[in-house]
Write a structure and sequence with these properties.
The chain contains six helices and 47 strands. The chain has about 850 residues and is mainly β. The longest helix has 14 residues, at about 15-25.
């Protein structure tokens, strides 16, 4: 069992915390919350039409180019999580996982190049990267979501695509007591299971005290969803045929999401205000994965038309049960103090903590005998190739246990800091704002591999097994049951086996021996990173009759330390540490011009940065001693920086009617790419092959956005938005992907949303389609081996009926067009991955009091 020296305690007192939250909300004994940037209170009552109008008002009032999703709009779009709600906005693209939106890209910038905040505070990431997975955050926990596409000096400079802020609910949104209960369940075509409960409870109240008013807001959210997914995957291709493996994968998992929001705010009669905000979200995946892997495709193939023939047949069958737990927590305390009629002081302390616990995972691998029967791979349908598996491969007696493996990973992230801001009215038209901010961030990645190989032959027939069955034109053969894999672990020894760095594996016992790869795969993979960021800014806002100008400077000083473990080829050889310090000056200008009528012209020019990814800059490494190869991070990477230009036109024709158009350009320096070299040095040793990361040449992104929405008096409404983005990256000569120019990674050239609805009387109906073009997902060693994600369009239908002022019933159909996900190498005839998830149907109600 892995011994961890740095580990947050698992969140285990959920029922106690929920009881405490309810008690606090009822009693009202608390402090208070107020938005970090005082925003005009907006009443959000009614259906889609009112929600869209409120979102437009927030967009119009912003001093930056932005897009807003209102809380009511989230429910109307039948969106399971935050990322799926955000994808309705212009310039937003979402990467899917298991049929759900997970990572958000803004204007072609992948999730690591965008900032994510909760109530304006930076959010720690459970993974060993900067980007935050958003599939674990239910939309019911939030009041609104805003994507800022330009920056002002009072915002952190750490984004190139955009800054995504998730705003939780405030009691001052409502006049007095407000409560809402929302309950739903869903049915999916593949799971054949209608028991997927989804519950959210919201309660707010305002209390008049002697010297002011107290507001308390609480949200509790709980979801459970059963997911079944099937896919085909390949490991890679030669010029004409697969030269790696072909896999059939079957997933059966339960995904649970729990969340708590608790906000207090106190507005004193003196004009001062105080707030406290608490956010906790926990996401648990209990996943069973069966994999049937064809291993005989590495041999040379004979190709005739769409059919490739290989000389032998051999299979691996694997089962991997695992439980992965991710959580994100944040807390904020602060206040706003009216020093005089012309000056205001704001002070805040904040913290965010995240963890991804993947320490409960076992994998059992059985390998078949090798058959002289030729294997054919029929590529007539590249998404669903057909293979001629021999009958002998369906006999579990022909499979022998190769290894029982445990790969435990624990990633923790802590982000704490404080900020002080001062507002000073210089005169009737100009306001000065300045402030300082300090952040300390610690990221820890702890990995351990323990492999156990049986001493004597053990066949699959001796253990619980099953045949998964037919899908995609092939029959997924015998596989160990998931309970059968768990049953293997008691056959190991009872004690532990110490590795040279002080960590340990479970003892192999009498039936197994260690694989011999534990030291090299475990020791060098551990790493720790610490960042200390000091920032200061000076910003002025000048308002005239026809224009608003926001301009100023921000400076951020970063002092980073990256630590790891040295492995000398035999054992742990001590710790290593690297320092990387740098400063960054970020000027910015945002101009809002009031044209004739309700027309605005916006101009934004700003400089921004994204610090190197934690994995890319880490002092950790993956080592293969047998081939004398290493893949490791580069602690001396420079941050990626960009000059950004944004011009947009907005026409607010009337309530619910909007026309918008914009252009953007990004000149990016020091983008980070992976490089490969032979006979090269890394971590004090010379390797036959070395892969690491370096800063590349310049990249350029430009694009355009269009948006239109209109609401008719008869209740009909329509919305459409479209984004075009085009960019490229020049790879250096020593790049692992070749000396060439490629499309910008994770950037879809075209994205669009189209929605038609009806909102009048008791009915609120919406039919929505979301489209994204193909995009480059990963770079290969040549253009033919670059991995692409195919174009994707999903259609969702939602309907709500207001039974009375309190009760509303709802129904939804998600992925109504049953669109699969498809990934390919180079062109669509070269399969990388194909997934089907089926359509999902939802039924529920909400009761408001």
């Amino acid at each position: 069992m892995r011994q961890n020296t740095r580990k947050f305690p698992r969140y285990s007192g959920e029922k106690t915390l929920l009881a405490l939250v309810i008690g606090l909300a009822v009693s009202g004994s608390a402090m208070a919350q107020q938005s970090a940037e005082s925003m005009e209170e907006v009443e959000v009552y009614g259906g889609s039409r009112a929600a869209l109008a409120n979102a437009l008002e927030k967009k119009r009032a912003s001093d930056k180019a932005s897009s807003v999703v209102d809380s009511d709009a989230m429910g109307n779009f039948a969106d399971t999580n935050v990322s799926e709600s955000l994808r309705r906005l212009p310039g937003i693209m979402v990467e899917n996982d298991q049929g759900e939106g997970r990572y958000v890209s803004v204007r072609g910038m992948n999730t690591d190049l965008n900032a994510m905040t909760i109530n304006g505070v930076s959010t720690a990431s459970p993974e060993n990267r900067r980007g935050v997975m958003l599939d674990g955050v239910p939309s019911d926990m939030l009041d609104s979501m805003t994507v800022y596409k330009t920056l002002t000096p009072n915002l952190d400079a750490d984004t190139i695509g955009g800054a995504i802020d998730l705003e939780t609910i405030s009691a001052f949104k409502y006049d007095g007591f407000h409560s809402k209960v929302k309950a739903e369940t869903s049915y999916n075509e593949l799971t054949k299971d209608g028991s997927n409960p989804k519950l959210a409870v919201t309660a707010t109240n305002r209390f008049r005290l002697q010297d002011g008013e107290l507001g308390v807001a609480m949200v509790l959210s709980d979801q459970t969803r059963h997911i079944v997914a099937r896919n085909n995957e390949t490991g890679g291709w030669g010029d004409e045929a697969i030269d790696s493996d072909f896999e059939m994968r079957y997933y059966d998992l339960e995904r649970e999401r729990q969340g708590v929001v608790l906000n207090f705010d106190y507005q004193a009669d003196s004009g001062n205000s105080y707030f406290a905000r608490f956010f906790h979200n926990e996401y648990t995946d209990t996943e069973d994965r069966a994999k049937w892997e064809t291993r005989s495709l590495e041999d040379d193939a004979t190709v005739e038309g769409d059919i490739a023939t290989y000389p032998t047949q051999r299979m691996d069958t694997e089962s991997r049960p695992r439980v992965e737990v991710r959580n994100i927590s944040s807390a904020q305390f602060g206040g706003e103090f009216q020093l005089s009629e012309r000056s205001t002081l704001k002070a805040e302390i904040f913290g965010s903590q995240a963890e991804q616990d993947d320490t409960d995972k076992w994998n059992a691998i059985y390998r078949s005998i090798e058959l002289d029967t030729p294997m054919t791979y029929d590529n007539s349908d590249p998404k669903k190739p057909v293979l001629n598996y021999a009958d002998e491969l369906y006999d579990p007696q022909n499979y022998f246990l190769k290894a029982l493996e445990s790969e435990t990973a624990l990633s923790t992230d802590r982000d704490f800091g404080l900020r002080v801001d001062m507002d000073l009215a210089l005169n009737d038209v100009t306001e000065l704002q300045y402030g300082i901010k300090y952040r300390q961030r610690d990221k820890d990645n702890d990995f351990n591999f323990c492999g156990y190989e049986p001493i004597d032959d053990v066949t699959l027939a001796e253990h619980d097994n099953r045949v998964i069955g037919d899908y995609f034109g092939n029959n997924h053969g015998p596989s160990p049951t998931f309970d059968g894999v768990r049953d293997l672990t008691p056959t190991l020894g009872n004690g532990s086996f110490a590795l040279s760095d002080g960590t340990s594996c479970r003892a192999p016992g009498e039936l197994y021996e260690l694989s011999g790869d534990e030291e090299e795969e475990s020791i060098a993979a551990d790493w720790y990173a610490e960042e200390n960021i000091f920032a200061g800014y000076l910003m002025a806002t000048t308002t005239t009759d026809f224009a608003t100008y926001v301009y100023g400077l921000r400076y951020e000083d970063t002092r980073a330390t990256y630590r790891g473990k040295q492995f000398d080829g035999d054992a742990y050889a001590g710790d290593v540490a690297y320092d990387n310090d740098y400063g960054f000056l970020a000027p910015s200008l945002n101009v809002q011009l009031q044209l004739a009528g309700d027309q605005l012209l916006r101009l934004g020019v700003f400089r921004s940065l994204v610090r190197p990814g934690f994995g890319e800059a880490s002092a950790g490494a993956e080592i293969d001693l047998e081939d004398n190869e290493i893949e490791g991070g580069n602690p001396y990477l420079d941050p990626t920086t960009a000059w950004n230009l944004d011009v947009s036109y907005e026409y607010y024709v009337g309530e619910g009617t909007f026309i918008g158009a914009g252009l953007f350009y990004k000149d990016i320096s020091d983008a980070i790419v992976e490089v490969s070299a032979s006979d090269a040095e890394l971590r004090g040793q010379v390797w036959d092959r070395m892969e690491t990361y370096i800063n590349a040449d310049d990249s350029r992104i430009w694009g355009a956005e269009l948006a239109l929405q209109h609401a008719w008096d008869n209740g009909l409404l329509a919305m459409v938005n479209y984004t075009f983005a085009d960019g490229e990256t020049d790879l250096p000569a020593d790049s692992a992907y070749g000396d060439r120019t490629t499309p910008y990674v994770k950037q879809a050239r075209n994205t669009a949303n189209l929605a038609f609805g009806y909102d009048k009387g008791a009915w609120d109906i919406r039919l929505a389609a979301n489209y994204r073009d193909k995009y480059l997902d990963e770079l290969g060693d040549s253009a033919l081996n670059d991995r692409y994600t195919s174009d994707f369009m999903q259609v969702d239908l939602t309907a709500k009926y207001e039974v009375n002022d309190n009760l509303t019933v709802s129904a939804a159909a998600m992925n109504l067009n049953d669109r699969p996900e498809f990934y390919y190498f180079g062109n669509e005839s070269r399969l990388s991955q194909y997934d089907e998830y089926g359509s999902t149907y939802e039924l529920g109600f909400s009761y408001t009091y």
